[in-house]
Write a structure and sequence with these properties.
about 80% helix
Length: about 400
């Protein structure tokens, strides 16, 4: 390292993290979250536009998820092995290009191709977002993660309301175009910052992946993510189905889901100064309790206020589990394997959701409630174990 480079880095540290180094990853994550929030609402319009069968429509949804699963592992490995910011940029570019292809699709095959490219790009850059943010704000990593989550949650909450109120018919094309534009802006913002470059690469011995499997507390946190996100994903799946069966209008369903995302964002904002403190363990422990408390309220009656209370509880559980679990994963990750650890974070979250929905989709509520309760109990035990490991480490 030259003296000139050292002076630049000292100046950057003195002036605080470059805003563009934070805004770029957050904007890209906003596009990623909007896809997650909007696509379930877009599927009926896509089915009508292309005259798709249910099985074909399932491929529109699942092709993206499969590509994300592949991209996450690829992005995690490349993020540790190569320049993290460049790998992130390639992922955002693929995601934007795939979104544009979907928006311009005039055939089912073109639609699937766009969804695969979009999912691959999203999988590549998504696990690198917390890594870039914590590097940009190393003194307060928890604050960076909580701001990231709350901003994404606010925009995700309003996206369904905006789509339902102003777009319809071929408006699904406009939605994908908008997602592509946000991703492109994120890429331009990050690349336009001369000070938003990778820190010094890890120069120790080559990554020993056996150390990854020996990190007990890391895998305990992965199990926590699997259980909490599995329960939340099942909630997101079951809520619209149950409301539709009870002839609740789509606009009301979107409103309840928006309340959940708004609760997540607001509570994340309130917790931003607590996730770097000894309260981390209590916050993580509260998450499964809040989640499991929200489920019975769905079935206690047709009172709309109970549905809102349920959404508030589950949204609060998501806020208490999101940034804290990511922070612990970064703390427990072996040296040189931060990116692959955050990619496994996303993988366990998705697998938890897939498992919960696959096993409980057609299960009666009484049995599903017991299963969710056991999952949340396991998450609570994992939270206690992981934070005990953090205390022993300190």
């Amino acid at each position: 390292m030259t003296a000139h480079t050292s002076d630049i880095e000292k100046e950057a540290l003195a002036s605080g993290p470059p805003r563009k180094a934070i805004i770029g990853p957050v904007a890209a994550n906003v596009a990623f979250v909007m896809e997650l929030t909007l696509v379930p609402l877009l599927l009926p319009a896509i089915q009508l536009h292309f005259d798709l069968s249910i099985s074909e429509l399932a491929w529109v949804f699942n092709s993206y998820g499969i590509a994300v699963a592949v991209g996450v592992l690829l992005g995690g490995w490349c993020g540790d092995a190569f320049n993290t910011r460049k790998v992130f940029g390639y992922g955002v570019a693929f995601f934007a290009a795939g979104s544009l292809i979907v928006a311009a699709a005039d055939s089912f095959e073109m639609l699937i191709a766009g969804r695969i490219l979009q999912g691959l790009g999203g999988g590549i850059f998504a696990p690198l977002v917390p890594l870039l943010l914590t590097r940009a704000l190393p003194q307060r990593p928890g604050r960076a993660l909580i701001v990231w989550g709350s901003i994404s949650g606010y925009l995700a909450a309003f996206a369904p309301l905006f789509y339902g109120g102003f777009l319809g018919g071929d408006g699904w094309k406009t939605a994908f175009l908008f997602i592509a534009i946000i991703a492109a802006i994120a890429l331009l913002v990050l690349n336009g910052s001369p000070s938003s470059r990778d820190p010094e690469p890890y120069t120790g011995p080559p990554a020993d992946y056996s150390a990854l499997f020996q990190a007990r507390d890391l895998w305990v946190t992965f199990l926590y993510v699997f259980c909490t996100y599995g329960s939340i994903t099942y909630y997101l799946f079951r809520l619209p189905v149950w409301l539709s069966e009870n002839e609740v209008e789509a606009a009301s369903i979107g409103f309840v889901l928006s309340i959940m995302w708004l609760t997540f964002s607001c509570l994340s904002t309130l917790l931003r100064n607590m996730v770097d403190s000894p309260h981390l363990g209590a916050i993580m422990f509260a998450a499964p309790l809040l989640i499991v408390a929200g489920f019975p309220l769905l079935y206690l009656g047709d009172n709309f206020l109970l549905l809102i209370a349920s959404a508030v509880l589950v949204g609060s559980g998501l806020a208490c589990s999101n940034a804290p679990s990511t922070q612990l994963i970064l703390r427990f990750a072996p040296k040189g394997m931060s990116a692959v650890s955050t990619s496994l974070d996303i993988t366990f979250a998705r697998f938890g959701g897939i498992a919960a929905v696959a096993l409980l989709a057609e299960t009666e509520f009484a049995y599903a409630a017991v299963a969710i309760g056991l999952s949340c109990l396991a998450a609570a035990v994992c939270a206690f174990t992981a934070n005990k490991g953090l205390a022993d480490e300190g």
